[in-house]
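Hey, resending since the last one bounced:
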Amino acid sequence: MTHDLVAALHPLLTAEASAEAHAAGSEPGDLEQAVWLRLLERLERDGPPLDPEGWLRKAVRAEARRSRRTTRLERPYGSEPADDTRPGPEQLVLTAARHHALREAVRRLPGRCPRLIEALLSPKDPTYREIAGELGISQGSLGPERSRCLGCLRRLLTPEVAAREARG
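The structure tokens again:
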């Protein structure tokens, strides 16, 4: 019986929702869904309406009024709340994890390498002269030392990167 009622009311509901949607500031499909939901709730609670077509017309108009009220009360945001330019929480966590893994690998480097790489990663952005003075080495040997330390760091990180990609 429910299937027959739905089949009989479908064309009327489509027409009524299309007629009311524009003035209500909503989509016809949204009105249709709301009325179908009302009908299902009514069928469960009270059984089928005595005048299904009349009930349907009233239900469409009631949903259209509700939609108009809702539209009047809603205000648009001044700006888009979802700012895509800033990283989301998951991106922040992944970035922090990468930085932590890098710092851990730097600590495992041999000799002066941990101090050299930490100096290169410093937010103060020291010059080569400042780094060489801090480490007590000549500025001319800083480049080759840096290359050697970065090579060691690359070798330390390669197995970790490969292992992460394999899980992928």
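The helical segments are 2-24, 28-46, 52-73, 89-107, 113-121, 128-135, 139-167.

Sorry for the duplicate.
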